């Protein structure tokens, strides 16, 4: 597998990359199920793949644009024999996400994440993203990317109020698992209880879930718990309250999963977000 980075730019609130992957490996962590604090605009340019967001699978054709809310779990599903995979992604931390798009994000959270365009509209979208890419070596890069994102979101808002939404073709069993996890996220449950509630064999449930989400049911549940804890940590500044919100009974287990999923310990993550907020106030 070989990644060619055609454009990239990052600061503490914004990350843009245009990447082409030759001979993509479905087992690589790049394509595994994950979520993050940032909102994401994902633009598919080429390859043979599908895209799953919280159990809903979207067919990818060149020009497909997917918008994701922060902390939505997603992954790429590469088809067997895929030789290339090209995409542009723009990730925005909540502090950088433009205001005024509550209606759009409500629709996204309901599962309508994917947008397709006419040839003329795609030419316009390509031009917008090319403008963002061409700005990465200029002093106005962040302002330009944010302006481009705002214009694209405005376009998606207009499409949301029309009949141009792509109807999701999700896996109902996977969505049922996700609904169960959401309802019992911080409770003490196991796969046997989940299987009994859905009247399915737990091995079959795990195979189906992994085929769509790219991770096991338990890995997904742990990721959701840690993201809940992280949100509490950011809102309250209290590691103790974050631990309590997570549903873990032992702090050592909470700490281990937090570090594995976020790459930071709770204390390190709190220091990072505190420094970021102080930097914003000093600007």
Features:
single chain, 283 residues, alpha+beta, Jelly Rolls, Arc Repressor Mutant, subunit A, 2 domains, 6-stranded antiparallel beta sheet, 3-stranded antiparallel beta sheet, 10 helices, 47% helix
Question: What does this 3D model show about the protein?
Answer:
The protein has 283 residues and is α+β, with helices and mostly antiparallel strands. It has two domains: 159 residues, Jelly Rolls, CATH 2.60.120; 105 residues, Arc Repressor Mutant, subunit A, CATH 1.10.10. Helices cover 47% and strands 20% of the residues. It is built from ten helices and nine strands. A six-stranded antiparallel sheet has the order 1-2-8-3-6-9. It has a three-stranded antiparallel sheet with strand order 5-4-7, covered by helices on one side. Helix 2 runs antiparallel to helix 3. The longest helix has 20 residues. 30% of the residues are buried. The model has no long low-confidence stretch (mean pLDDT 86).
């Amino acid at each position: 597998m070989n990644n060619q980075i055609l454009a990239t730019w990052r600061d503490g609130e914004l990350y843009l990359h245009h990447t082409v992957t030759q001979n993509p490996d479905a087992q690589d962590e790049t394509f595994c199920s994950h979520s993050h604090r940032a909102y994401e605009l994902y633009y598919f340019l080429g390859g043979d793949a599908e895209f799953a967001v919280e159990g809903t699978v979207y067919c990818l054709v060149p020009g497909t644009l997917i918008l994701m809310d922060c902390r939505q779990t997603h992954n790429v599903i590469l088809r067997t024999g895929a030789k290339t995979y090209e995409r542009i992604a723009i990730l925005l931390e909540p502090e950088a996400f433009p205001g005024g798009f509550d209606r759009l994000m409500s629709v996204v959270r309901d599962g309508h994440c994917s947008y397709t365009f006419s040839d003329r509209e795609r030419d316009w979208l390509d031009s917008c993203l090319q403008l963002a890419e061409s700005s990465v070596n200029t002093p106005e890069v962040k302002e330009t990317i944010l302006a481009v994102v705002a214009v694209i979101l405005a376009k998606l808002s207009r499409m949301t109020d029309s009949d141009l939404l792509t109807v999701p073709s999700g896996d109902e069993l996977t969505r049922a698992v996700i609904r169960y996890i959401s309802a019992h996220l911080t409770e003490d449950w196991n796969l046997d209880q989940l299987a009994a509630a859905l009247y399915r064999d737990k091995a079959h449930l795990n195979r189906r879930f992994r085929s769509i989400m790219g991770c096991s049911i338990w890995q997904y549940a742990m990721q959701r718990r840690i993201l809940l804890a992280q949100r509490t940590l950011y809102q309250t500044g209290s590691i103790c309250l974050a631990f309590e919100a997570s549903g873990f009974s032992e702090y050592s287990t909470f700490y281990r999963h937090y570090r594995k999923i976020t790459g930071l310990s709770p204390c390190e993550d709190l220091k990072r977000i505190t420094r970021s907020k102080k930097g914003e106030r000093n600007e």
